[in-house]
Structures are given as structure tokens and as C-alpha cells.
Amino acid sequence: LWDVYLRRFLKRYGGSRVERTRDLFEQAVDGCPPEYARPLYVAYAAFEETHGSTKRALGACARLARLSGPPAAQRLESWRFYAAKTAELVGLPATRAVYEEAVAQLPDAQALLAAVDFAHAERRMGEIDRARALFAYAAQLASDDSAAVWPAWHAFEVQHGSEDSFKEMLRVKRLVRARYAADPHVLAAADLRAKQAAKDRAAAADKAAAADNAPANPDEVAIDDDDDDDDDI
After folding, report:
1. d(Cα 182, Cα 136) in Å, to the nearest integer?
2. What is the Cα–Cα distance from 72 to 123, expressed in whole angstroms?
3. Which residues are CB-contacts of 150 (< 8 A; sequence separation ≥ 6)?
4. Do 103 and 118 contact (CB within 8 A), yes or no?
5. What is the pTM of this model?
6. Distance from CA of residue 10 to its chain's centroid?
7. How far apart are the first and last CA of the chain?
8. Could you give the CA distance from residue 70 to residue 166 in angstroms, rounded to a whole number?
9. Could you give the CA distance from residue 227 to residue 74 in angstroms, rounded to a whole number?
């Protein structure tokens, strides 16, 4: 309801009633459940960017990112939105504070992705050593070989590294793999995934076998291809 009302209000008044529009946005976000607040904060930030100030626009982005109610994946996207707006409006170096807070606030799986984003930002700023350190930090949050940090770090070392730095990346990967291989919780989770995969394969095989052995349709009409017999009747 607020989303519709605010769109109509902005279409009618644009930036001519800034304080009134801010008041409406504040009422909207205050009364909205966190998991549904993203469109309101995005619109709020866009309004401030166009008719208000950069500081207020980034403030709306920060408030969105710091919401604790939404699912972790949605929270990560909100932090990414905040970082992107910060880079656009203030400059890439200012994103450091955003990424640092994101890595500290998010659960490990999403913090890893935020750390990889942070590493890419440092690389774009020419800070190769800082980027490498961030990849190493992200690796400590990885749970297996499929984690997003490994292909990103591998590509980074191919482009910017040396033989020694590449070997160091492989060493860290082996350490992470060994650590999680010895963790009973990780082993139990892997065993559960393997059992579920086996059950899924068995079910698929049973379904295929049932289809192959299905009886013929009892209502099927046999068609005599011998047209000559029909002509003799």
C-alpha cells in the first residue's frame, strides 16, 4: 500500500515537497516488516539521490543493509547495493568501510561472498596485496572445494600472482580441506547429502524401470494393416 501511495505522491509532486516526502518514507519504513522493506528503502535512497543529498541517500542504503530480519541472501544483496551506491556516489575507496561492516555482520556463507567482493574492489584500486589478504580471509570461511572463493582466487593469482603466491593459495586450500574433513559436523552433513543423492538416483532409476515395464493400454485399438482383407469383405 505504501509503495503505491509513494509512487503516486512522487509522480504528482516530484521534488517540490522534500520534507513531506521524507516524512512519508519514514512512516513507510517504520511500519514495514524488515523482509518487505527493501523496495521502500531503495525508493527512499533514489529520492534522496535525486532531490536530497548524497549523505541521506547513503543513509537509506545503510539502514536497509543493517536490517536483521530478512533472509541472509537478501541481506547480502542489500550490502552489495549499499557498496555499489557508495562507489557510485562517493568513490571506490569509501566502500572499504561498507565491506568491512558487511563481512562482520553477515553469516559465514554470505560473509565469504562479501569478502570476495571486497577483494575485487581492492584489486580494482590496484591494492594487490590487500586483495590477496582478503582472499585468504575468505578462504577461512569456506566449507568445501565448491566455495566461490577458490575460482575467484585462482583467477586472481593467474593474473596478478607469482609461482610462490599460487603455491600459497593451494596450501591454504589443502589446509581448509583438511580442517573440514576432520570436522564431525561437516562429515555428517556430507554423509547426509550423499545418502540423499543416492536415494534420488534410486528413485529416478525405479521410475524409469516402471515406465519401461508398464503394461500396454488395455483400451488400445489394434489396427489391421492388411488393407486387402478389408477389400475382400
Report:
1. 20
2. 26
3. 139, 142, 173
4. yes
5. 0.73
6. 31
7. 77
8. 38
9. 68
Residues 6+ apart with CB under 8 A from 186: 143, 144, 180
The set of residues, in sequence order, having a beta carbon less than 8 Å from that of 136 and lying 6+ positions away, is 172
Instruction: Enter the C-alpha cell of residue 214.
Output: 508398464
Cα gap 227→233, rounded to integer Å: 11
Helix ranges (DSSP H) in the chain = 2-13, 18-30, 38-51, 54-65, 72-89, 95-105, 108-124, 128-139, 149-160, 163-181, 184-212, 227-232
pLDDT value, residue 3: 75
Contact 44, 67 (CB under 8 A): no
Grid cell of 170 as nine digits: 593451494
Top-confidence residue, 168 or 185: 168
Q: Which three cell numbers stand for residue 206?
A: 525405479
Q: For residue 229, what is its C-alpha cell?
A: 482383407
* CB contact set of 121 (below 8 Å; sequence gap of 6+): 83, 87, 92, 95, 96, 99
Over the stretch 38-49, which tens digit does the pLDDT of each residue have?
999 999 999 999
Q: Which three cell numbers stand for residue 184?
A: 564431525
User: What is the residue-wise DSSP string for 7-18?
Assistant: HHHHHHHTTS-H
Which of the two residues, 92 and 25, has the higher pLDDT score?
Answer: 92
C-alpha cell, 76:
547480502
CA dist 211 and 5 (Å) reads 55
Nearest to 75 by CA among 41, 122, 24: 41
Torsional sign, CA 128, 130, 131, 137: positive
